Amino acid sequence: MQAKRPSKEPEVVDHRTRVGRERRARTQSRIIEAALHVFAGKGPDAPVIEDFIKTAGVARGTFYNYYKSTDELLEATSKWLEDDLIMSIEAAMEELNDPVERLTTGVLLWMKKAESDPAWCAFVVRVRHHGRLVERQLAGDLRAGLRAGDFSFPSLPVARDLVIGTMREAMSRMTQERVPKTHAEDVARVVLQGLGLDSRMVERALSRPLPKIRRLARSIE
Amino acid sequence: MQAKRPSKEPEVVDHRTRVGRERRARTQSRIIEAALHVFAGKGPDAPVIEDFIKTAGVARGTFYNYYKSTDELLEATSKWLEDDLIMSIEAAMEELNDPVERLTTGVLLWMKKAESDPAWCAFVVRVRHHGRLVERQLAGDLRAGLRAGDFSFPSLPVARDLVIGTMREAMSRMTQERVPKTHAEDVARVVLQGLGLDSRMVERALSRPLPKIRRLARSIE
Known about the structure:
Chain A is 70% helix and 0% strand. By secondary structure, the first copy, chain A, is mainly α. Chain A has a single domain (11-207), classed as Tetracycline Repressor, domain 2 (Orthogonal Bundle).
C-alpha cells in the first residue's frame, strides 16, 4: 500500500503514468530475462535480435523500443546484473571492514548466488562479465589484506586472477555438473590459501556466520 | 635428408605421393593457423566458413576438401593444439616423477608457452579448450600430491578449478595487457599456495631449473 501523497498533477494522470512505467519495466524485465538465457546459451557474439524476440515473446517493434542492437542489450544485461549484485551481495557486506572477512564473505555469497540462480551463473560464465565495482572492491580488499600482513602474494593482478579465475572455473563446472553442498566453502578455502592466508586464519574466516542477504530476487524496477 | 629405403613402389610414385602429402599438410596447416586466429578473435560460435577462407587465403572448394563445417574445424584446431602441447610440454615433463615438481613445471611451461605464442594463448582463452590429456595428468598429479601430504585442499574438482581457472584468467589478461617478466612464476606461486603447499616447499619448487623444451614451434606434419 502506498501512502497518499500531495501532487500537483491530477490523480488520474499520476495513476496512468505509474501504470505505464510499471508496464514498461515489466517488458524490459522480460527482455532482459530472455537475454540472460540467450547469452548464457550462445555466448556474447553469436545471438541475433530474432533470438531475443522469440525467447521474450515480444513483437519486433516492441523490442526496438527498448534496445537498438545486440550489443546494447548485452550492455544493459550486464549493467542490470551488476545492479542486482550490488543490491544483494554488496549490501550484505557494507558493514564489514576487515579485508579477510570481506573477501571471504564476498566469495561465499557470490558462489551461493551462483548456486541459487543457474541463469545468472551461466551468463557470468559465458559472457565473462564482472562489474567494475566488483573489481574495484576486490582490488581494495586484496591491497588492504596484503598491507595488514594477512595475505602474501607476488602481485595484485595475479592475486586477482586467482580469485576471479578460480570462481569462474568453479561456476563453469556448476553449469555442467552437480556440486557438493560444501562447494562455496571449498572454493573460498583454496582461494584464501592461494592468497597466502595461514591455515589458522583460513579456519577462522570460514567459521564466521554469513551476513543476511537482503534480496537475491531479480527485479529491474 | 632422408635415408634411401627399399620400396615395392617405383621411386617416382613414392616421390609424387610424398610431395602431395606435404602439400596437403601445408594447406591444412594454413587453414588451421587461420582458424586459430579467427576463433581467438571471434570465439567458438560466431565465425562462419567465409571467415576461415578469407583469412587462410584458400578457395572455398579447397576448404571443403579438408573440413565440412565450423564445428569440424574447431574440433581439428583443438586436437592440433593438444598434439602441439604434448610434443612441447609433455615431452619435457616425461622424466619428472614428483607431483609437486610436475605440477610446478607444467604451470611454468604452459604460461611461458602462452607468453611466446599469443595466438595460441588467445585461442585457449576464447575457446576454453583444454585437452583431456592435460586434465588427466593434472588430476593424477593433484591426487598424488595430496596423498603424499604435500598438498592440502578440500576436493579434487575444486583444486582443478584453482589451477585451470587461475591460469586461464592470467592468460586472458595477457591478451589484453603487458605482464611482467615474473608472470609465469607469480602465477605458479599463487597456484601452489592455493593447493596448500607450505611456503618453504613453494620456494624450493620455484627454484628448480626448468627442463628443456624440445619444441615450441607449430607444425601439424
